[in-house]
Amino acid sequence: MSTNLTTESDIVLIGAGIMSATLGLLLKELNPKYSIEIIERLDRAAAESSDAWNNAGTGHSAFCELNYTPDKDGTIDTSKALKICEAFEESRQFWSYLVEKKVLNSPKTFINSVPHMSFVWGEQDVDYLKRRHQALTQFPLFEEMKYSEDYKQIEEWAPLIMRDRRMSQKVAATYMDVGTDVNFGSLTRMMIKHQISQPGVRVTFNTDVYDLIRQEDGRWKVCIKDLKTGKKKTIITKFVFIGAGGGSILLLEKSGIPEGKGYGGFPVSGQWLVCKNKELVAQHNAKVYGKASVGAPPMSVPHIDTRYIDGQKALLFGPYAGFSTKFLKTGSYCDLFKSLNFGNLGPMLGAGMSNIDLTKYLIGEVLKSEDKRVEALKDYLPDAKKDEWFLETAGQRVQVIKKNKEGKGVLEFGTEVISSADGSLSALLGASPGASTTVNIMITLLEKCFPEEFKSAAWQNKFREMIPSFGKSLNQHPELLKELRAKTSQTLELAH
């Protein structure tokens, strides 16, 4: 028989992924007196979207991701790339601060130096990449980017992608030596482990949040259930953050806040090809991104990717997108149907009708045979052999669907924070670039949800201590950018 206990906490964070881990650390640094509860449905931290095998991209900094620099009528739009790169620099500074404070130990367990490359072929795409390079290198954040159409130079950067390639094929690549690989699973677990040791912080695993009820006094009643014992409990709190990955949209709907009305989610699953030939793994050291297929979501941009997972160097290709009605890898096939309501049904149907290319792409990916997957791999590794690779299931992502200004349903491929008008509840929806820009996302959230504290001298000074570039654009302060990149590289043990 279940019992219902009631406790209180200043802050409740739902989900023990990179988002909650970062927000919890920031809040505790800003105000050590806060009491914080972190609730996780699974039996460990970072087991869903933040896990290394589930994370479609690591170390996103816009150095190599071509979907962040769209070609608009002959002009390369650099705005998103600049924003993401600035945000990633903030993440590096915060992690560096945590290493210096001994919150994070042994940086190589979560971050390693891995060059970032873009690689294309064919006249049209080579022309695009050349113009992209010209557009980006005008900015200090990207001025170190190299460009080449020379086979030998590209072979020096990434020998496997040029091996057995036809010399008649026109190719081009860009190269950023300051790129990194980040294991967000490892990083998150270290963050959570530290928080467990802090006074006033409690992390509860194997626990489901089944309801969110706003009280008359403005506080929230967070209803939770122990999945092992069935015992129920209620936490009364002033602030709730929903950082439950794909599951966030279902909890946002339970909250009933007007700001969450009309939002829907479109789930996209994925798979990797993983190399089991250790000699090949050792020969490649880069993240090499290409151009996405027509209709492909950002998480499905093809890349041949050096990763460091559980202390071992790995080589992955993909991800191959697919469709599932689950909102989480460990979720239910009923998730999509549970999320449908009168408020979002219109936008969902409208988004579906206007994204026929995506539907066709996903159907094609689901039906793709093993030989077809290897064929796609051979675009990047011409001499790839099927028996040297195996298929691994990646994570589940839920892309945001919402109404635009005209009231039509649109599919969004970024991340979005939805907050109640009084700032007492906030939820993170979406996928890419997500984890790499977490620090920037959480600072924006704090400004919205803790406006008075955010403006205080104490918080402003602490932000500048944790993130030295806080309040400044590194693009407009090239000397500061150079100084901070050098400092964080040294602290994070990144040898370039």
Question: Can you describe this structure?
Answer:
With 496 residues, the chain is of the alpha+beta class. The chain has one domain: FAD/NAD(P)-binding domain. 33% of the residues lie in helices and 26% in strands. The strands form four sheets. Strands 6, 7, 8, 14, 15, 16, 17, 18, 19 and 20 form a ten-stranded mixed β-sheet that branches. Strands 1, 2, 10, 11, 12, 13, 21 and 22 form an eight-stranded mixed β-sheet that branches. The chain has a two-stranded antiparallel sheet with strand order 3-4. A hairpin with a 5-residue loop joins strand 19 and strand 20. Helix 1 packs across helix 13. The protein starts with a strand and ends in a 5-residue tail after the last helix.
CATH level-two architecture: 3-Layer(bba) Sandwich
Strand-pairing-aware structural class: alpha+beta
CATH-defined topology: FAD/NAD(P)-binding domain
Largest sheet: 10 strands, mixed
Q: How would you name the oligomeric state of the polypeptide chains in this document? A: single chain
Q: Which CATH C-level class is it?
A: Alpha Beta
Range of helix content: 25-40%
Number of domains: 1
Overall, the morphology is globular
Radius of gyration: 22 Å
Uncertain stretches? none
CATH superfamily: FAD/NAD(P)-binding domain
How far the N terminus sits from the C terminus, by CA atoms, comes to 59 Å
**How much is the average pLDDT?**
89
Strand content: 25-35%
The count of helical stretches stands at 16
